[in-house]
Amino acid sequence: MPFYHKLGEILITANLISKEQLNQALEEQRKNGGQLGNILVKLGFVKEADIVEALGKQLNIPYASLTKGLLKPDPHQELDKLVPEEVAREYCLIPLSKHLNSLTVAFADPLDLVVQDNLRRITKCEINPVIASRKDIEQALDDFYGKKDLLQEIIAQTRKTGEKVKKKEELDLNELVKKAEEAPVIRLVNLLIQQAIEERASDIHIEPLEEGMSIRYRIDGALYKISPPDESLLPAMVSRIKILSKLDIAERRLPQDGGFSMTVKGRRIDTRVSTVPTVNGEKVVIRILDKARIPLDLKQLGFEPDDLEKFTNAINQPYGLIFLTGPTGSGKTTTLYAALNQINSPHKNLTTVEDPVEYHLPGINQVQVKPGIGLTFASGLRAFLRQDPDVMMVGEVRDLETAEICIQAALTGHLVFSTLHTNDAPGAISRLIDIGVEPFLISASLLLVVAQRLVRRLCPECKEAYEPTAEEREKVGLTNGEKIYRAKGCKKCHFTGYKGRIAIHEMMSINDELRQLISQGKPDNIIKEVAQKNGMMTLQESGFRKVREGITSLEEVLAVTGTR
User: DSSP string of 138-177?
Assistant: First the structure.
């Protein structure tokens, strides 16, 4: 709630929260940023509607809610023509009624005087504000204006009005810039990104084909096609994205990397943009970095209670080496960020060397690797060792030099986090040996290795229970009569049967017995066998637990862990 600086005092006075809850929310805000009202709602201390009602009383502004039937615009006054839908959605407001020259409007932020002034000019009416929750207004907007797919609407328009341009034709640069700055192209690119954010997409792929073009969103790890606009708009769309990303629009023969930031529904969204020349033209991939969707609380990452305890103990050690392993896109960086966030305090100097820096963490010194000017993982690490660090995070160990500096730092009193690409936790040992690290150094410095994968969550709206076969029961560890769930598909999950993802883990704590085996250079299978005897749960066993709990499906776990 951005519009009142004494929100905490108001809520305490209204007996909606306690002083301890406010202090906890303020601490969360200090660590992760964000708006206090949203944090209080996220922590479960208060409902958004209660906050809005309390603010309405404090500000002497009437409170309107859907449940009381007060967010229904007068159907006989043509309010949809008076206040355009684009304006209502952009500023999260809805017109309710008009009397003479006075227009009553519900606002999520009734003290934004600039918005009210703009609305006054658009409607030529005096504005009578009431307050409502953002969620209620968004629902009322869908009910009033109709839930439209604005992206598909503008795409349909481009097909009707798009100028037919030969794809291979060399366009004049000035003409290309002009087209990229035209309103339909700007709106199309904005809506393309906005819809991707609303659908929780991590990436947007814009690809030229031999005939036409393709646009796909990556949602929960899988790519889904959306209906593309007229192919004649592709050069202008690519140029628009390049302009936003501060890339060279004249350069179409070499790959380029950039990025830009935008504000969507009151929150900042960062993007990384990559362009690559293909035989059919330039392909663009936009990586969406939505910090609000990144769980920086270890409890939200899917750790089993006993594994969470092991991990928390390890990250609170004064020195040692902790590795996260897994393929690209398995959430390793998110887990590392959550660990750093957990131990971050004014009494510790935390530093990271990353390629790239994906999210900016308050209170942590983050460095972007730039190999072109000699700033590598190894050189960045060496520099940080002269900066009096307590905790260091290295984006990835790729070579012997980086590995040796990490181990040396861990052995000289620093806590070091990093990642490796291995299939399981014991595989990290052989990977380090393969790149040239001496086994005795690994055993002396290593605290913990965590292998991680992401599995898709079953959609809670449509998942269906079924009785597994005898073979499936034995595999998952079920007794007769117990049921598990499988994907079905509904409108809310785009008929995939899944919505969101959660991590499964294989956590290998290094004890004296394992240190001895590592020093002796024992193979992975021996180390894994002993680790399991000491209580390590494999990735598949972690997945099966989530199958038994109804969080994911057996099919998903088997697909992700590579065993069918």
Answer: HHHHHHHH----HHHHHHHHHHHH-----TTS---HHHHH
DSSP 194-207: HHHHHTTEEEEEEE
Burial of 51 (0-12, 13-18, 19+ CB in 10 A): buried
Give the pLDDT confidence score for residue 9 in this predicted structure. 81
Spatial separation of the C-alpha atoms in residues 354 and 368, rounded to whole Å:
5
What residues contact residue 530 under an 8 Å CB cut-off, 6+ apart?
513, 514, 517
Give the pLDDT score at 428: 95
- The b-or-e profile of 201-215 (16+ CB within 10 A means b, else e) is bbbbbbbbeeeebeb
Q: Is 161 exposed, middle or buried (0-12, 13-18, 19+ CB in 10 A)?
A: exposed
Joined together, the tokens standing for residue 307 give: 């594994």
Q: Tell me, rounded to whole angstroms, the distance of Cα 480 from its chain centroid.
A: 39
Non-local (6+) Cβ contacts of 263 within 8 A are 269
Task: Please name which of 325, 320, 324, 332 lies closest in space to residue 515, comparing C-alpha atoms.
Answer: 320
Low-confidence stretches of the chain (pLDDT beneath 50): 1-5, 162-170, 564
Strands 365-368, 267-278: pairing is unpaired
Q: Between helices 539-548 and 554-561, what is the axis angle to 10°?
A: 170
Cα 352 to Cα 518: distance, rounded to the nearest angstrom = 28
The DSSP line for 56-72 is HHHHT--B--TTTT---
What are 318-361's pLDDT values in tens digits? 999 999 999 988 989 899 999 999 999 889 999 999 888 888 88
Find, among 280, 116, 269, 292, the residue nearest to 190 by Cα: 269
Q: Give the per-residue pLDDT at 185.
A: 82
Q: DSSP secondary structure string, 439-454?
A: HHHHHHHEEEEEEEEE
Which pLDDT does position 418 carry in this prediction?
A: 95
* Peptide bond connecting 356 to the previous residue in cis, omega within 30 degrees of 0: yes
Q: Which has the closest alpha carbon to 485: 547, 544, 557, 543? A: 547
Interatomic CA distance for residues 357 and 352, integer angstroms: 9
- Are 106 and 94 a contacting pair, CB within 8 Å? yes
**Token pair for 120:** 């006054």
